[in-house]
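Forum > Structural Biology > Help requests

Title: Can anyone predict the 3D structure of DNA-binding transcriptional regulator, LysR family?

Hi all, first post here. I have the sequence for DNA-binding transcriptional regulator, LysR family but no way to get a structure on my laptop. I'd be grateful if someone could post the structure tokens.
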Amino acid sequence: MIEVGRLRALDAVASYGTVLAASAALHCTPSAVSQQLGKLERETGATLVEKDGRRIRLTEAGRVLAAHAAKVLAALDEAEAALAAQRDTVTGRVTIAAFATACRGLLPHALHRLAADHPDLRTGLLEGDPHHALDLLQRGHVDLAVLDDWPEAALTWPAGIATAELGLDVADLVVPTGHRLASAAGPVRRDQLIGERWIAAPPGAICYEWLMRVLPGVEPDFLVGEFETQLTLVAAGLGVAMLPRLARPTLPAGVATVAVAPRPTRRVTVAWRAASAARPALRETVAALRESWARSYG
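Reply #1:
Sure, ran it for you. Structure tokens for DNA-binding transcriptional regulator, LysR family below:
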């Protein structure tokens, strides 16, 4: 009989490509992952992995077993959720992956509420961009993900993932108070923004992808990931930025916001594996996130 922990090790290696990354996802040492793989090879009598430079890759037998491992782990997930629903108690552990703004603006209240209402529930939080968080969720390395995307750079939901929209987060143009558009009487058109010095997220970030699609031809002069840093650069008069409202609960001195037409909005979504939907802990976590959204954006 193949031991489930060894299948988890193989699944993690299939997902991340290195023993080191797999061990980080499984919260164990690299040697522990290697030992599990060695035992699995002895149990099955097959070579499952082979070295490929600094990485390892699955053999044909490894790929076959990894595909079945994913199905087994999904079935276990569903079975555990069904048992938890039978007890109707909010216990166990829920690990959440979320984008940076949600970690700062939504999760503190939601996690505090869960701790107060359900002391037997353990929670964990991992910050990550939406694409990475969705991959972690699909692979079973987190239980729930809070994600953002834009109509012009929308996420694609894999099979087996359930979602609920928390709401729409409006983005505004953020400019220095002395800027020509700071006192605009109404929303400015997007074509009025061409030629500005832009402060934006780095390439690879979903906000960067969105900006490049809605303002083709824009070449940002400053590429920084944190919205707070973008605000600081705007306040220094170095350029303009397009920031969602959830990312800027307060504005520093020297900064003004200007509405844009058509109004840019990003969707904020909570996602989980459909197989684990029956878990009371997930139900309560989603409810806490909805409450936090209403407090932040109501």
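The two ends are 53 Å apart (CA to CA). The chain has ten helices and 13 strands.
Shout if anything looks off.
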